[in-house]
Design goal:
Layout: H1 3-16, H2 22-39, H3 44-75
Helix pairs in contact: 1-3, 2-3
Length: 99
């Protein structure tokens, strides 16, 4: 039951954010799962399995979202990420005149 929402959430994160967003999202989700299972006195194995499914679902969804962002959207003519704001400027050599 947790797998489908985590895949959808990971896909949404993959279309907008970098991979570093998965760590705080997964940590928050696992904490919420652990608190919920503690309140309902669920076995530890259930809590661990649900946390693993959440994390794997987020990662699979993230890969799907990145695939959509980098493969399908440019093929449709939708603009991708902006190029860097600054290009490498050529080195300017100044010669000092002896005087």
């Amino acid at each position: 039951m947790i797998l489908v929402p985590s895949i959808i959430g990971g896909a949404l994160l993959g279309t907008r954010y970098k991979v570093f967003c998965l760590v705080p999202i997964a940590t928050t989700g696992i904490t919420a799962i652990a608190a919920f299972n503690f309140l309902h006195q669920a076995p530890l194995s259930s809590t661990v399995l649900t946390g693993i499914l959440l994390t794997v679902g987020l990662q699979v969804g993230y890969l799907i979202g990145v695939t959509v962002r980098w493969v399908l959207l440019p093929a449709r003519g939708v603009a991708g990420p902006a190029p860097p704001l600054h290009a490498a400027a050529p080195d300017v050599v100044t010669s000092a005149t002896a005087g």
